[in-house]
Amino acid sequence: MLERTFQSKVIKELKTIFKDSIVLKLDAGYIQGIPDILILNGEKWAVLEIKRDDKHKCQPNQKYYVERMDKMSFARIVTPQNWKEVLNELQSAL
Prior knowledge:
Layout: H1 3-17, E1 22-25, E2 37-41, E3 44-50, H2 62-72, E4 75-78, H3 83-93
Parallel strand pairs: 3-4
Antiparallel strand pairs: 1-2, 2-3
């Protein structure tokens, strides 16, 4: 599966589950390493870095930003293999 295909699926599912939230696709060219998706839910927020599979390596700074943002709120690297697990964690966090 292509990363953009999986990312579209994730965004669609997030918008269905978190109806009152704002789900944004972030600009990868703005700051190298910033995660792909931002979910704003009231006073809570989360970011997700999308990878097409669990073998696809992170770009420089992606792990740094995911770890840093996870300390602030909620951040994960998402693959088709871990999507359901991350979604469960995300629902608990938001």
